[in-house]
Design a protein that fits this description.
There is one protein chain. The chain has about 270 residues and is α/β, with parallel strands linked by helices. It has one domain (about 1-265): Thiamin diphosphate (ThDP)-binding fold, Pyr/PP domains (Rossmann fold, 3-Layer(aba) Sandwich). The chain contains nine helices and five strands. The protein has helices at about 1-20, 30-45, 65-75, 115-130, 150-160, 180-185, 190-195, 210-215, 260-265, and strands at about 60, 135-140, 165-170, 200-205, 225-230. Strands 1-2-3-5-4 form a five-stranded parallel beta sheet, sandwiched between helices.
Length: about 270
């Protein structure tokens, strides 16, 4: 229970940092939906105490527009000083709107062109298999991103190669850049699709620390199969005004609302 309490506290602190950072740029909604997933991975699941350890687990944020969550999590993990977060989206800073590989310790991949992160993950997981390495590769993707054909090409290959050292988490918040996912391209049989592509699938509440941890600790779900956790989330989770509201994909945090949002997160 102690680990859960600590991780829950960390997610609140991460969200507070994001409120400050997103006065400068968009994507607070998709950032808030994935906070709990990334925090559980870094603080409860992955073996990643050092960004330079060859045996570390690898992490790829395929939905790169949530880069602020990765930057903040890595800072809380101690990979660099939290003061660097003040430079988010400012001139001469390496905290870009999408992550750049090796720009900061712990960033494994340049992402943001949606659909490509899983292919990177397949390659890294395959390299681990070929080299008899024990580390796992974790990839976080969005549900809207799963409309990209490259996702399914990578999914087929991962199954063929029996990459049971590959774990995908879907941030399934049911909102993408311009509308609800089902209004743009329905994926009602989402779980069945992944199973048909040869993956072992679990669904869970993407904001329940305990349930996320339970699902991710069980990977691989089946020997010889890649694992995927469909995490049901809410865009903007944590601030009532943001929750399940498309506009917060783009809106910046108003300066006159910062204090009230921080107070809400402290309750």
């Amino acid at each position: 229970m102690e680990a859960i309490i600590n991780t829950e506290n960390i997610t609140k602190e991460i969200r507070k940092e994001l409120i400050k950072m997103h006065q400068k740029g968009p994507h607070i909604g998709p950032a808030f939906s994935v906070v709990d997933i990334i925090a559980v991975l870094y603080f409860d699941i992955m073996n990643i105490s050092s960004p330079d350890d060859p045996a570390r687990d690898r992490f790829i944020l395929s939905k790169g527009h949530a880069s602020s969550v990765l930057y903040t999590t890595l800072a809380f993990k101690g990979f660099y000083d939290k003061s660097l977060l003040d430079g988010y989206l400012t001139d001469n800073s390496v905290l870009f709107g999408h992550p750049k590989r090796k720009a900061l310790p712990g960033i494994e991949a340049s992402t943001g062109s949606l659909g490509q992160g899983l292919s990177l993950g397949v390659g890294i997981a395959l390299a681990a298999k070929n080299d008899n390495e024990k580390y796992k590769t974790y990839v976080v993707i969005g549900d809207g991103e799963c409309q990209e054909g490259q996702i399914w090409e990578a999914a087929m290959l991962a199954s063929k190669l029996k990459l049971d050292n590959l774990v995908v988490v879907v941030d399934a918040n049911n909102l993408q850049g311009y509308d609800r996912v089902e209004n743009i391209q329905p994926i009602n049989t989402f779980k069945a699709k992944w199973e048909a592509f040869g993956w072992s699938v679990k669904e869970t509440n993407g904001h329940d620390i305990n349930k996320l941890k339970e699902a991710l600790q069980a990977t691989p779900f089946e020997s010889g199969k890649p694992s995927i956790v469909i995490a049901r989330t809410m865009k903007g989770k944590g601030i009532a005004e943001f929750e399940d509201d498309l506009k917060w994909h783009y809106f910046l945090i108003p300066k006159d609302k910062v204090d009230s949002y921080l107070e809400e997160l402290s309750r």
